[in-house]
């Protein structure tokens, strides 16, 4: 996908990975629209990258439903949708607040799926587009204290894998981003969480399995992958086997469906 002049919508663009993604896409020549709740931070990022800020709460189903139409009406077609906004959950399943479970599910999983549903027909009509999802290493397995978060990220992985099959034969590409720890507010919040989460993190660190990556470096890799139409951005590389073991059933499904005609616009009114 040619990023120079492309319109890129980055959710969760007010800070952390999303703000770095906004800068990296803008540096590649894209016109960036950033979405999040914190208006001041969001406007500062938009001003820095010569882009547009759109304040929205992605936990609100009605807002999510109308977001693509509102942005496309005001600014033109979205060429790249980067579903990056997310929130952590850091308590065991027996103690996590039910409201937090619902909000994490809405922001991390429901919003990316509905935004994709809304943006995809236009992309298919224009024969141009890319879909980027910020998943996580936490989507490859269950980690104690992070059950709902892990579940949303695993859901995102299978959603992206479905899209890859449905969009085979079209120019629309998907990129699934699955990092371990990234040096942002979210990782600080995970590390400051319950003693069980801290003990888990200490064990993984001792095993040298979770080196941190900077959000700037990760964003650079994501933008390069979007430009090249690459399916995955994974970190750390030392956990490649983990990622591939998770990927195996998806590849087997793709292989089993080779030659089957799939129409991504079946039953569109
Ligand atoms: P972060 O610094 O906490 O940023 C999260 C972003 O999501 C913020 O821009 C936040 O903006 C936005 N957001 C949260 N709730 C929202 C809502 N209801 N509506 C709209 N926007 C909302 O965390 P980060 O590390 O950059 O995380 C970005 C993505 O990377 C997430 O999907 C996360 O799961 C994933 N990830 C992070 C790590 C890590 O270690 N940091 C590792 C793997 C994957 P507002 O608060 O302004 O709304």
Give an account of the 3D structure.
- The protein is α/β, with parallel strands linked by helices.
- It has one domain (7-256): NAD(P)-binding Rossmann-like Domain (Rossmann fold, 3-Layer(aba) Sandwich).
- The chain contains nine helices and seven strands, in the order E-H-E-H-E-H-E-H-E-H-E-H-H-H-E-H.
- The chain has helices at residues 16-27, 39-49, 61-75, 98-126, 147-166, 185-191, 195-206, 215-228, 240-256; strands at 7-11, 31-36, 52-55, 80-83, 130-134, 173-179, 232-235.
- Strands 3-2-1-4-5-6-7 form a seven-stranded parallel beta sheet, with helices on both faces.
- Helix 5 links the parallel strand 5 and strand 6.
- Helix 1 (16-27) runs parallel beside helix 2 and helix 3 (61-75) packs parallel to helix 4.
- The longest helix is centred in the middle third of the chain and has 29 residues, at 98-126.
- It starts with 6 loop residues before the first strand and ends in a 13-residue tail after the last helix.
- The model has no long low-confidence stretch (mean pLDDT 96).
- NADP nicotinamide-adenine-dinucleotide phosphate binds at residues 12-18, 36-38, 41, 57-59, 84-87, 107, 134, 136, 179, 181-182, 184-187.
């Amino acid at each position: 996908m040619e990023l120079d002049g492309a319109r890129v919508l980055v959710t969760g663009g007010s800070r952390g990975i999303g703000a770095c993604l906004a800068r990296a896409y803008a540096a590649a020549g894209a016109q960036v629209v950033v979405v999040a709740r914190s208006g001041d931070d969001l406007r500062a990022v938009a001003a820095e990258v010569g882009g547009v800020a759109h304040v929205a709460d992605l936990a609100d189903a009605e807002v999510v439903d109308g977001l693509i139409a509102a942005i496309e009406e005001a600014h033109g077609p979205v060429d790249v949708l980067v579903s990056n906004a997310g929130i952590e959950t850091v308590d065991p399943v027996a103690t996590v607040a039910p409201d937090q479970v619902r909000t994490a599910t809405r922001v991390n999983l429901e919003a990316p799926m509905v935004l994709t549903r809304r943006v995809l027909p236009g992309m298919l009509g224009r024969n141009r587009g890319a879909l980027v999802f910020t998943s996580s290493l936490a989507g490859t397995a269950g980690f104690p204290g992070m059950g709902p978060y892990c579940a949303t990220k695993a859901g995102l992985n299978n959603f992206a894998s479905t899209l890859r099959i449905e969009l085979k034969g079209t120019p629309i590409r998907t990129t699934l981003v699955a990092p371990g720890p990234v040096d942002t507010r979210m990782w600080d919040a995970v590390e400051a969480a319950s003693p069980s989460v801290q003990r888990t993190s200490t064990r993984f660190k001792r095993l040298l399995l979770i080196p941190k990556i900077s959000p700037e470096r990760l964003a650079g890799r994501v933008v390069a992958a979007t430009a090249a139409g690459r399916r995955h951005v994974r970190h750390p590389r030392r956990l490649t086997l983990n990622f591939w073991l998770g990927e195996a059933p998806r590849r087997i499904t793709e292989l089993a469906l080779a030659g089957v005609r799939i129409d991504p616009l079946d039953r569109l009114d």
